[in-house]
């Protein structure tokens, strides 16, 4: 073979574990046929014989012998005198197979051919990687921190594949160092151009569900079913579990003795508080469980509006709402109901929206975010606590309390 660089390309690529022999041969043939089309105008009458193991290649051009003055297409036809230079006994009408040397293609064509070969191999590798990770969507994956950027962390796996962990897919308390291993789920894979973009997430509820499968044997074996997972990443999560085997306590099995089983999951998620709840198809019972650790006195459900009015003792209200309103928000996400909390024994209360003429809408929304949507619920909270839990200034909170107090004094 005249071109040693091309032979080296064969041996270089044949050992690539992402490409099998049949695929490599198909790529090589495609590359050479493209080169032949450029050189001769057509590749229909060429036979290409490839041995990628040895880096060996043969190209044969097949032409028909015609009389010396009747050659119309030099690529398809050969004159009798030229044919007889190959074999003296050739006659008009016979087929001639002649080997084409790579040197005949020209130096520039050979360099372009090599570059095209490399490009096709990389394109195949990228397609293979895309398909490989497409099958891994929703699965836990581990990769090493390679580069830390402002908006994303770039990870590399053992195969050198690049995985992106965007800032908004990181738990707020996440802090990464170069070289450390990071776990998350493969959330999406896109083929942009010829390069796959693989995105990892640590904030997805699916990540928490997969951690349960990894850490809790009964979940992995299917003895315990995870019905639903809701999260405020890094802060709090609620997981509804069920078991078709009455002998298994799904909550106890997931939490473990003194929290031994769930501790590793909590640590992985930056000490995210995880409530594990027994699932039930009874909406009243499910809402009551979802508001844990608060103890509910009674629940009135409006199925059509998907709303639930929950009555609690005054000392249970703050538990139901939770720090930052996370508990009541997650209970709503988990059950699918909008939950309104009322204090037991308080007959008179007014929705905050009734004060929209005196209190701006965005201020009312700030209170709603932490589960406070009635006048009494706001009045029962300390000013200092409300300032901490909302984006409101102390002066604004005091003014709101003044307006609400006047309503009840009147």
Automatic annotation (TrEMBL):
<protein>
    <recommendedName>
        <fullName>Transcription termination/antitermination protein NusA</fullName>
    </recommendedName>
</protein>
<dbReference type="InterPro" id="IPR015946">
    <property type="entry name" value="KH_dom-like_a/b"/>
</dbReference>
<dbReference type="InterPro" id="IPR009019">
    <property type="entry name" value="KH_sf_prok-type"/>
</dbReference>
<dbReference type="GO" id="GO:0005829">
    <property type="term" value="C:cytosol"/>
</dbReference>
<feature type="domain" description="Transcription factor NusA first KH">
    <location>
        <begin position="202"/>
        <end position="278"/>
    </location>
</feature>
<dbReference type="InterPro" id="IPR012340">
    <property type="entry name" value="NA-bd_OB-fold"/>
</dbReference>
<keyword id="KW-0805">Transcription regulation</keyword>
<dbReference type="InterPro" id="IPR025249">
    <property type="entry name" value="TF_NusA_KH_1st"/>
</dbReference>
<keyword id="KW-0963">Cytoplasm</keyword>
<dbReference type="GO" id="GO:0003723">
    <property type="term" value="F:RNA binding"/>
</dbReference>
<dbReference type="InterPro" id="IPR030842">
    <property type="entry name" value="TF_NusA_bacterial"/>
</dbReference>
<dbReference type="Pfam" id="PF13184">
    <property type="entry name" value="KH_NusA_1st"/>
</dbReference>
<keyword id="KW-0804">Transcription</keyword>
<keyword id="KW-0889">Transcription antitermination</keyword>
<feature type="domain" description="Transcription factor NusA N-terminal">
    <location>
        <begin position="6"/>
        <end position="125"/>
    </location>
</feature>
<dbReference type="GO" id="GO:0031564">
    <property type="term" value="P:transcription antitermination"/>
</dbReference>
<dbReference type="Pfam" id="PF08529">
    <property type="entry name" value="NusA_N"/>
</dbReference>
<dbReference type="Pfam" id="PF26594">
    <property type="entry name" value="KH_NusA_2nd"/>
</dbReference>
<comment type="function">
    <text>Participates in both transcription termination and antitermination.</text>
</comment>
<keyword id="KW-0806">Transcription termination</keyword>
<dbReference type="InterPro" id="IPR013735">
    <property type="entry name" value="TF_NusA_N"/>
</dbReference>
<dbReference type="InterPro" id="IPR010213">
    <property type="entry name" value="TF_NusA"/>
</dbReference>
<dbReference type="GO" id="GO:0006353">
    <property type="term" value="P:DNA-templated transcription termination"/>
</dbReference>
<dbReference type="InterPro" id="IPR036555">
    <property type="entry name" value="NusA_N_sf"/>
</dbReference>
<dbReference type="GO" id="GO:0003700">
    <property type="term" value="F:DNA-binding transcription factor activity"/>
</dbReference>
<comment type="similarity">
    <text>Belongs to the NusA family.</text>
</comment>
<comment type="subunit">
    <text>Monomer. Binds directly to the core enzyme of the DNA-dependent RNA polymerase and to nascent RNA.</text>
</comment>
<dbReference type="InterPro" id="IPR058582">
    <property type="entry name" value="KH_NusA_2nd"/>
</dbReference>
<feature type="domain" description="NusA-like second KH">
    <location>
        <begin position="284"/>
        <end position="344"/>
    </location>
</feature>
<keyword id="KW-0694">RNA-binding</keyword>
């Amino acid at each position: 073979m005249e071109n040693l660089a091309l032979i080296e390309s064969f041996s270089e690529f044949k050992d690539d574990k992402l490409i099998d022999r049949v695929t490599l041969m198909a790529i090589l043939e495609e590359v050479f046929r493209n080169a032949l089309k450029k050189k001769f105008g057509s590749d229909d009458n060429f036979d290409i014989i490839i041995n990628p193991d040895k880096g060996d290649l043969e190209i044969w051009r097949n032409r028909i012998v015609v009389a010396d003055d009747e050659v119309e297409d030099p690529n398809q036809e050969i004159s009798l005198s030229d044919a007889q230079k190959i074999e003296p006994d050739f006659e008009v009408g016979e087929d001639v197979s002649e080997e084409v040397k790579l040197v005949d293609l020209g130096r520039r064509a050979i360099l372009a051919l090599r570059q095209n070969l490399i490009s096709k191999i990389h394109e195949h590798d990228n397609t293979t990687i895309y398909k490989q990770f497409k099958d891994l969507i929703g699965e836990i994956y581990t990769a090493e921190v390679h580069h830390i950027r402002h908006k994303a962390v770039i990870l590399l796996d053992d195969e050198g594949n690049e995985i992106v962990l965007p800032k908004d897919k990181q738990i707020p308390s996440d802090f990464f160092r170069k070289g450390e291993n990071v776990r998350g789920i493969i959330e999406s894979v896109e083929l942009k151009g010829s390069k796959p973009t693989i995105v990892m997430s640590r904030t997805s509820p699916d990540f928490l569900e997969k951690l349960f499968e990894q850490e809790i044997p009964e979940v992995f074996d299917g003895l315990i079913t995870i019905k639903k997972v809701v999260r405020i990443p890094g802060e709090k999560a609620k997981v509804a579990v069920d078991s078709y085997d009455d002998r298994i306590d799904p909550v106890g099995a997931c939490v473990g003795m003194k929290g031994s089983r769930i501790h590793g999951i909590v640590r992985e998620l930056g000490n995210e508080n995880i409530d594990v709840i027994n699932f039930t198809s009874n909406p009243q019972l499910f809402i009551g469980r979802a508001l844990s650790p608060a103890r509910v006195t009674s629940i009135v459900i409006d199925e059509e509006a998907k709303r639930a009015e929950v009555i609690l003792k005054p000392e249970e209200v703050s538990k139901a709402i939770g720090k930052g309103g996370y508990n009541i928000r997650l209970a709503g996400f988990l059950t699918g109901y909008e939950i309104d909390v009322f204090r037991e024994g308080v007959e008179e209360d007014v929705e905050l929206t009734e004060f929209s003429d005196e209190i701006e809408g965005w201020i009312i929304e700030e209170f709603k975010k932490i589960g406070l949507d009635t006048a009494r619920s706001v009045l029962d909270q300390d000013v200092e606590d409300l300032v901490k839990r909302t984006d409101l200034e102390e002066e604004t909170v005091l003014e709101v309390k003044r307006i609400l107090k006047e309503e009840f004094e009147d």
